[in-house]
């Protein structure tokens, strides 16, 4: 992340990060603090693996909270009114046909912080090979990209839905 650079997020992505931060803060303040307290009560901290594990977990959670704070402080929420269906941009949902398998797939283009291939529709990063191939393309365009497993895939863009998938 480049200092001062705006990080574009969908409204859904922004709200998800706010929720994650609150959950992490609550976990950090309650569960981890309790684990550290219990581990301290066991005595010698130099040979106390429970204490070390709890402190490591505390550090990881604290780092993630700081990362989320940075993202939220530099967030620029995508303006829904600027969304169009002429060409693919961040926030659009896209329906494509895999030309080798003749099946349709649906993807939502998001930034790397929001990417989640297990969601429905699959949220793919605009920085991924597929995301980069789709950006600024139009209905009817065909795109080729290399998958992480080094296979070349070719897709045809069937539909571009407005921000939020509607």
TrEMBL record:
Keywords: Coiled coil, DNA-binding, Elongation factor, Protein biosynthesis, Transcription, Transcription regulation. It holds the Pfam family GreA_GreB. Residues 7-77 form the Transcription elongation factor GreA/GreB N-terminal domain. Transmembrane segments: none annotated. GO terms for molecular function: DNA binding; RNA polymerase binding; translation elongation factor activity. Residues 7-38 form a coiled coil. Residues 85-160 form the Transcription elongation factor GreA/GreB C-terminal domain. GO terms for biological process: DNA-templated transcription elongation; regulation of DNA-templated transcription elongation. InterPro entries: GreA/GreB_C_sf (IPR036953), TF_GreA/GreB_CS (IPR018151), Tscrpt_elong_fac_GreA (IPR006359), Tscrpt_elong_fac_GreA/B (IPR028624), Tscrpt_elong_fac_GreA/B_C (IPR001437), Tscrpt_elong_fac_GreA/B_fam (IPR023459), Tscrpt_elong_fac_GreA/B_N (IPR022691), Tscrpt_elong_fac_GreA/B_N_sf (IPR036805). Belongs to the GreA/GreB family. HAMAP family: GreA_GreB. Necessary for efficient RNA polymerase transcription elongation past template-encoded arresting sites. The arresting sites in DNA have the property of trapping a certain fraction of elongating RNA polymerases that pass through, resulting in locked ternary complexes. Cleavage of the nascent transcript by cleavage factors such as GreA or GreB allows the resumption of elongation from the new 3'terminus. GreA releases sequences of 2 to 3 nucleotides. This is Transcription elongation factor GreA. The lineage of its organism: Bacteria, Thermotogati, Thermotogota, Thermotogae, Petrotogales.
